[in-house]
């Protein structure tokens, strides 16, 4: 029964049946088993017009279905492009803000002044807002778009940012051998995440 689950096969079978039906009728009416069946031009014209209307309607429906399918594919592709554009812009903002946070963290750790602590806290709050927005966007679309690899890398980066930021905020400098080195590692991972996102977009849009 699997063969009848193929929509294209069923459509072709119907079209072939409609094309063959007039031929079968013509053959049947020519046989002596239908002595009372009229075969004059009006009767043949009626059947020709009737079957022609059916065939024309089916062809119209077939073309309409193809058009709708193509439009749906185009719409889904446009939705993907819009989604990935949004993700890309957010992640670019995330990377830039993370870089600023690293600079402020290093300054705060070295100088240990309230004047440097406040900008660090403010920048982290901005970064946290961006992180939350990206997380929601990714988590809501894991089953729609192929973003699982990027999501896993992104979670690892944000976990590390939260870990280091907590230590900086609590002034647990002794827990970090080299705060500047830790921050540079995070920025390197952000670049890796960007490469993964680029690969994800290519894989989802062009394969």
Notes on the structure:
The protein is mainly α. The protein has two domains: 2-70; 75-206, Up-down Bundle (Four Helix Bundle (Hemerythrin (Met), subunit A)). It is built from five helices and no strands. It is rod-shaped and about 110 Å long. The model is unreliable at 1-5 (pLDDT under 50).
The CATH H-level superfamily of the largest domain is: Alpha-catenin/vinculin-like
User: How much of the polypeptide forms β-strand, as a percent range?
Assistant: under 5%
| Cα shape | rod-shaped
Instruction: Kindly report how far apart the N and C termini lie.
Output: 31 Å
What percentage of residues falls in helices of 4 or more residues?
over 70%
What is the highest CATH level, the class of the largest domain? Mainly Alpha
Architecture of the largest domain, CATH level 2?
Up-down Bundle
The largest sheet is:
none
List keywords for this structure.
mainly alpha, Four Helix Bundle (Hemerythrin (Met), subunit A), 5 helices, 82% helix
Brief synopsis:
The chain has 207 residues and is an all-alpha fold. It has helices spanning 7-29, 41-111, 114-139, 148-169, 179-206.
How is the topology of this model organized?
Layout: H1 7-29, H2 41-111, H3 114-139, H4 148-169, H5 179-206
């Amino acid at each position: 029964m699997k063969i009848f689950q193929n929509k294209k096969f069923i459509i072709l079978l119907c079209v072939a049946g409609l094309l063959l039906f007039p031929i079968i009728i013509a053959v049947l009416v020519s046989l002596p088993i239908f002595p009372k069946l009229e075969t004059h031009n009006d009767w043949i014209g009626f059947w020709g017009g009737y079957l022609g209307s059916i065939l024309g309607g089916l062809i119209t429906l077939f073309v309409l279905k193809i058009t709708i399918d193509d439009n749906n594919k185009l719409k889904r592709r446009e939705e993907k492009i819009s989604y990935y554009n949004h993700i890309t812009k957010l992640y670019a903002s995330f990377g830039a803000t993370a870089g600023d946070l690293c600079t402020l963290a290093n300054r705060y750790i070295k100088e240990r002044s309230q004047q440097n602590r406040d900008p660090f806290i403010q920048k982290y709050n901005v970064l946290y807002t961006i992180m939350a927005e990206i997380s929601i966007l990714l988590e809501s679309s894991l089953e729609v778009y192929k973003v699982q690899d990027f999501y896993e890398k992104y979670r690892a980066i944000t976990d590390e940012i939260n870990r280091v930021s907590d230590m900086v905020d609590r002034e647990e400098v002794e827990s970090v051998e080299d705060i500047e080195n830790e921050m540079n590692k995070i920025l390197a991972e952000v670049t890796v995440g960007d490469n993964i996102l680029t690969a994800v977009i290519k894989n989802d849009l062009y394969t």
